[in-house]
Amino acid sequence: MKTTLKDWPIVYDRIKRVRGFDEHEKILNARSLAATPEERWQMNVTFLRSLGLWGRSGRRKLSSS
Amino acid sequence: MGALGTEKIEFLLIGMSAAIFQGVAGSTIDVDFWINLPPRQYLRPVKIALAQGATMLRNTVLELSDGTLVNFVYSVTGLASFAHEYSKAIWLPFHGLTIAVLPLERIRKSKMAIGRPKDLVHVHQIESTLKLKRAQGTS
User: Fold this and answer.
1) At residue B129, does pLDDT exceed 90?
2) Which of B66, B26, B116 is nearest to A56 (CA)?
3) Is the CB of B95 less than 8 angstroms away from the CB of A38?
4) Domains plus CATH for chain B?
């Protein structure tokens, strides 16, 4: 079944009984698994931007740390 | 990616960006493309990217106009030939194209072979995703 990010509760339902992951990890993974490739990449970019690590200025920050 | 296709250059998305495309909940700052070209043509994809407005940072590393860092690689540790891996690629939609992506099991194998501390972290993330995909019934 093809899903998108908004379907993450459906995926969460399917993985909620898997051992070895805490609740936060299950929600994080459910979001990632439900998302389309495009949405997954956008989440990565959004996360890096939130830390100021995307683009040239971000890389300057990384190389100086 | 579209320009590479137009120039009939075969490529595979590899590394952590390929893992993220397949649902691994991780992050990476660059996109790695395994390019199927002989050594004398290594500059072709670089020239294509520069023509699209990219900035060259190192020999095979460029920053695209949207801030994406792209790395062109021509061999990958721990894997078979490009042709072999390409034949087993999965095809995923991205930016209106359908691109060849190295499957998670093969990314895991490559990262195990490279074996830097960050690769071992990625192996753990990939294995977690594979386990959840099996539970979800999509692997």
Assistant:
1) yes
2) B66
3) yes
4) 2-136 (3.30.460.40)
